[in-house]
Every structure is written in C-alpha cells, then in structure tokens.
Amino acid sequence: MSVRAANERALACLTSAQPVLVDCRPAREALGLDEHTVLHSGPPLPWERACPTMQAAILCAVRYEGWAADDAAARRLVESGRVTLSPCHHAGAAGPMTGIITASMPVFVVVNRQGGHRAHATVNEGLGKVLRFGANDASVLARLDWLAREAGPLLGAALRSAGGLDLRALMAQALRMGDEMHQRNIAASALLARALMPHLARVAAETGPVARVADFIAGNDQFFLNLGMAAAKAAADPCLKIAGSTMVATMARNGTDFGIRVAGLGPRWFTAPVNTPEGLYFPGFTAADANPDMGDSAIVETVGLGAFAMAASPAVVRFVGAGGLRDAVRVTEEMAEITLGEHPHFRIPALDERGTPVGIDIRKVVETGITPLINTGIAGRAPGTGQIGAGVVRAPLACFAQALEAVARAQGVA
Amino acid sequence: MAEIGDLFGRELRVINVGLEGFAVVLESLGVPVLHVEWIPPAGGDPAQARLLALLDDEDGA
Lengths: 414, 61
Description:
The complex is a heterodimer.
Chain A: H1 3-15, E1 19-26, H2 27-30, E2 37-40, H3 52-64, H4 71-79, E3 84-87, E4 106-112, E5 118-122, H5 138-162, E6 165-166, H6 167-176, H7 186-203, H8 207-218, H9 225-236, E7 248-254, E8 257-262, E9 270-273, E10 278-281, E11 294-295, H10 299-302, H11 314-317, H12 325-336, E12 339-348, E13 354-360, H13 362-368, E14 373-379, E15 387-394, H14 397-410
Parallel strand pairs in A: 2-3
Antiparallel strand pairs in A: 1-4, 1-6, 4-5, 7-8, 7-11, 8-9, 10-15, 12-13, 14-15
Helix pairs in contact in A: 3-4, 5-7, 5-8, 6-7, 7-8, 13-14
Chain B: H1 2-9, E1 14-17, H2 20-28, E2 33-36, H3 46-54
C-alpha cells in the first residue's frame, strides 16, 4: 500500500472512532493485571533509569498494595526484580503523569464501538498531593483506598446501569464549551457529571456514598482527563496495524524518555530524552523545581486535542504560560502544518467550525522541524512534592527522525 | 544585464523567501516586501531530505 493510501486509512480509523464509557472495575479484572506488577506511563522504563519522582510513586504503589510495609522494603522488592514494571500502554491503559496502575485500583473501561477496541484509565485523583504527581504520603494512600473500596464499585454499577456513555459526543460538546481536554476539562467533567448522576443515585443503596462520589467529581475540574485519555487510546490503538502509514498513534513520556509509536510500525517505540515543560508555577515553586515531562496524557494531542485544540480554549492559554487568544490560534495553526487533516467531529467555533488538526505525520515533523506541542501539568522534581504548576512542552525531534528511517526501511525504499 | 538594470530603474516590489533579515532591511527602507517563511526540508540534512523524497506521496512509495 502507498504511504498516501495508508495514511488516508489511518486518519479515517482515528477520526471515525466511537469511544463509549461502559464500566469501572478493578485493574486485576479489567486488564488481567498480575499481582506484583506496577504499570507506569510512557515507553518501557527500567527501575534504574526512572527519575526520583517516578520511583517514589512506584514505591508508594507497592505499599498501597500491601506488598511491602515501607519504602525501604518496597525498594528492595523492586530492585530484586520481584515487582514487574511495565508501560500502561502495553496493558491496554493510559495513565496521566506517573501513570501508576496496580491490580486493586479501579479503572474506567472505554470501548471503541467502531471495531470493539478497549482502553482503560484510572479514576483521576484530583489536585495537589496525588500519586500521579509522585506524592506518596498517608493522604494519598487513604484516597486510593476510598477509590477502590467505595467510588470505583459505585461508578461501575452506575455505568453498567446507564448502558454506556457516548464520549465522542461529550468531548465534541466540551470542545465547544472551551475545553481542550488536557489542561482544561471543566466542561467535560460537568457534562459527565450531568450524565452520570441520575444513574449513581439509582444504583446506590444509601445516600452517603453517592454524596461522597458527587462531591469528589464536583471538586475536581480535571476529573474527565483520564476518560479523555482512554477515549483517545481506544481511537488510536487500532491504527497501529496499518502498514505503510507515517501517522503517529502514540505519544507518551515517563520522566526520562519521550516515546512515539507509528501506525505503520506497530508496537515499536522510538524514544529520545524527554524535555522539561515551561509554564507557570504555584506559589513557592520555580522552574528549578520542575521534573522532566511525564505521562501518557499526550495521547489527547495524538487525537487532535490538548495543545492542538488550543484555539478552542482561550481560558487555558494563560494557565499554560502562553499569551492570549492570538497565541492560541497560532498554536493550532502551527500544529496543522504537521498533521494529515482536520477532525470531522472535534470542531472549533472560533475558527469558523474548522476541525482540530489531527493525525501527526512524522514526515511533516521531520520536514518542517515543527514538533508537537503538548499541554501538561508539571510535577515537582523532589519526590513526594506533587504538582507544582502547568505549562507546555515540545516532543523531541529525534523520535520522529528515527521513525522516518524505520518507515523507509519497512517500505523497502531505504 | 540590461533586464536587471531595467528592474532597478522601476519601483521595487520584493518577495523574500527564507531569511527574514533581508525583508526587514528592505521594509525599513520603505520597499514593499512580501516575506515567505521557508526553511530547507529537514533543516538541510541531506540524508533525511532523501528519505522524505523517497516517502513522498507523489512517488507512491
């Protein structure tokens, strides 16, 4: 198949996806996750190469599962090889920031009704001291315990009662309401709450748990982020089987490496050292405190959201350290230079209903030198700090150059 | 040469491709300039430019 034909097929596969949220179940059931496995964000990462923030989150997850009583024992367990570390993406999931998932954690289940592919993501923990940003104190463990014991089962029951929620329609609407669905998910979270609450109320035996889950969702403007990621992964993964395509199907970071996977090259990662985000910091923190970029959340940029949809979200522009609406439009237009087309469902009112730029073409990235821009949260470099700000980061060009060479070899032209 | 001489005998209208500095200088002198942003493919790397040519849509690779 020609590159052009393969890319047309890949873009159609990506943009015709119909992600539907159907369930929330423990990762051991939904992912078939083994005991003593810790999933992390980004491409594969040996323990020795993990940054301290990632290591702190992994050790915290080991303690959370009860495999070790303290960090020292957890470290011994990991260093002895008795805990398996593996990317979320290899297990059918996408995890924000550190991306940690273990067997007991509840995960949302998203099905792409166009082909049946499934993708998963944890329940977003909220802001501040949370495991995804590398925080690891008692409050983190208490929240994880509540999510597994009360919130997860209730959310699962409500979603099964609802018969699934159409995420594509919800995301298209949220985009029109000012979300870019990476650093701004206020509208998407509110729309989800509106759709979910009646079902939560119906399935709950008591009012207390419903009130606590409702409070939790209402108190977290980024609640929808993980669902957007799972929806994006459910759309992007099926593209990984389209030989000859130069379209990017995965972008992910683990605090050490940035990795991409390309539709025509299947599960193979192309990696380069990850960059550190630039942006705005919470009071008391500066750029010197920032951890190199991490998280599978760049999957939303991969499907034409996040920074690619910046023009739809003037409210987020200042939050991620950019200027104003003109800068936002400039970002979206710049990303259009490296993409294959416009999204038929994700449209931007401020750009006369044009679709968001979607389908990153590694050839266009290498040709122009324009690398994908990603909106992102910023984790503290010191283990246990949590989130210290938000900003933007560029994908490293080297990943795309490596992938270009591999595609040429696969196509038999180099 | 005569044609070039004729060119400079008339009012200049310039299309500048690539380095913006030339456009800026001419604009400062009041010359109408249309600047076109352009850089060589792959930043001028010949090996990558060759791969791009081999994988070009028009070549049907």
